[in-house]
Write a structure and sequence with these properties.
Layout: H1 3-7, E1 11-17, H2 24-34, H3 43-48, H4 55-65, H5 72-88, E2 91-98, H6 100-105, H7 110-128, E3 131-139, H8 144-153, E4 163-167, H9 179-187, E5 191-196, H10 202-212, E6 216-219, H11 227-236, E7 240-242, H12 244-249, H13 261-266, E8 271-273, H14 278-281, H15 285-293, H16 299-312, H17 317-334
Parallel strand pairs: 1-2, 2-3, 3-4, 4-5, 5-6, 6-7, 7-8
The protein binds hypoxanthine and zinc ion (ZN).
Active site: 198 (proton donor)
GO molecular function: hydrolase activity
Function: Catalyzes the hydrolytic deamination of adenine to hypoxanthine. Plays an important role in the purine salvage pathway and in nitrogen catabolism.
Length: 340
């Protein structure tokens, strides 16, 4: 199945860091607009650094590039650039992660970040008929007190968020440290997700479920090392937002052939495909579908993962029904008609 055909497959994207969609060209444009000096000679020089050993080596570059994002207009432009690409990739509904603690460190208020991103989503709704929302992520390598302070700073506008998540350097920063923060987020009516089992052990996946009470696990691939956990994820229908190209680029897996996606899928886990930080990892969501198709997943299996993304999304039920009908029509169309 070609990447063009997979672009037309209706899907939701559920694991996408909006700051990870910052392409080098836009980074330099925003640097100029805001009078920020990037520590890279050129777009080409920056792109040459997209060669990572692990999650931390990526995070160092990713956080450095965020320094160019200063105003609500910057966040609107960033969101629109992503949503336009996502629309071309068949994304009908997108849930955007953002990292307000990094922006606060750059002197940018969480309100400016949210206002800009929401404006981008509103325009994409008008232009492309897309829906979506925001998931505020806490940095797990900062103290839980900082996460709580960030959460309280947006408590008055919790209605502008879909939920909260947990990201950044995983190993040594277990989910349980954030149990109180997630309990407070639930009290505010927010949906809960967390990165777990990307570089960290399967035990972190279980801990995210048991102590944070998350509804979805971001990545979760190392859950595959624990048979009982895999069975439990399948039985409880806990969705995993898997990011195959990211896992290869950050060396969480040696290559796609060794990726546990097949094992998780065959065990009945609700897996979805996502791009994570597409500007850095060599492809947007359709490229992730195409990569997986190259590993022997059939059209029906790819459609199942797109269906999972719609079902696992935080879109309202009516919107989910609309998108599932669109997906059914795509599947019916993709069946080759017999010759008369
Ligand atoms: O893949 C990721 N893992 C953890 N934190 C992140 N922040 C952006 N991308 C990631
Ligand atoms: Zn991620």
């Amino acid at each position: 199945m070609t990447v063009e055909a997979l672009r037309s497959l209706p899907k939701a994207e559920l694991h996408l860091h909006i700051e990870g969609t910052l392409e080098p060209e836009l980074a330099f444009e925003l640097a100029q607009r805001n009078g920020v000096t990037l520590p890279f000679a050129s777009v080409e020089d920056l792109r040459l650094r997209y060669d990572f050993d692990d999650l931390q080596s990526f995070l160092d570059l990713y956080y450095a590039c965020m320094a160019v994002l200063r105003t609500a207009d910057d966040f609107r432009d960033l969101a629109l650039a992503y949503l336009e690409r996502a629309h071309a990739d068949g994304v009908r509904h997108a849930e955007l992660f953002f990292d307000p603690q990094v922006h606060a460190g750059n002197g940018v208020s969480v309100d400016a970040v949210m206002d800009g991103l929401l404006e981008g989503l509103r325009i994409a709704g008008e232009r492309f008929g897309m829906t979506g929302g925001l998931i505020l992520c806490f940095l797990r390598d900062l103290p839980a007190a900082s996460a709580m302070e960030t959460l309280e700073s947006v408590a008055g506008r919790a209605g502008d968020l879909l939920g909260v998540g947990l990201d950044s350097a995983e190993v040594g920063h277990p989910p349980v440290l954030f149990a109180d923060v997630f309990a407070r987020a639930a009290e505010l009516g927010l949906r809960l997700v967390a990165h777990a089992g990307e570089e960290g052990p399967a035990a972190y996946v279980r801990e995210a479920l048991d102590t944070l009470h998350v509804e979805r696990i971001d990545h979760g691939i190392r859950a595959a090392e624990d048979d009982a956990l895999v069975a439990e994820l399948a039985r409880r229908r806990v969705p995993l937002t898997v990011c195959p190209l990211s896992n290869v680029r950050l060396k969480a897996v040696p290559d796609l052939a060794a990726h546990p996606l097949r094992r998780l899928f065959d065990a009945g886990v609700v897996v979805t495909l996502n791009s994570d930080d597409p500007a850095y990892f060599g492809g947007y969501v359709a490229a992730n579908f195409a990569a997986v198709a190259g590993e022997g997943f059939t059209v029906d299996e790819l459609a199942t993962m797109a269906r999972n993304s719609i079902v696992a999304s935080f879109a309202p039920d009516g919107r989910k029904a609309e998108l599932l009908a669109e997906l059914d029509a795509w599947v019916a169309d993709s069946v080759e008609m017999p010759r008369p």
